[in-house]
Amino acid sequence: MVSTPATTLDRLHAQLLERRGADAASSYTASLYAKGVDGIAKKVGEEAAETIIAAKNADDAALVYETADLWFHTLVLLAHRGLSHQAVLDELERRLGQSGHAEKAARAK
Fold it and tell me: Cα–Cα distance between 58 and 18 in angstroms, integer?
């Protein structure tokens, strides 16, 4: 199977949904779900801080590793809320080709 970003995200999303019903003692993902939005969001914040720290250092592999952790935990948060990566991809697609300044100004209104 050739892996593409879309198929990787689809497979990960399916696995995240599957783990919702798993035993929290045996599944890290299920243990995150058990903590609810506050616990998952806290973990996203921790991973964001670790990503920032990695970005300040010269180790590209560490930055990639921490970004993967951040993305994973963000995807868990989305799944917990009944959303998938596709909602984020759709929003990025909507913004594609649009000035970031114009997009921010439109949000302020």
Answer: 37
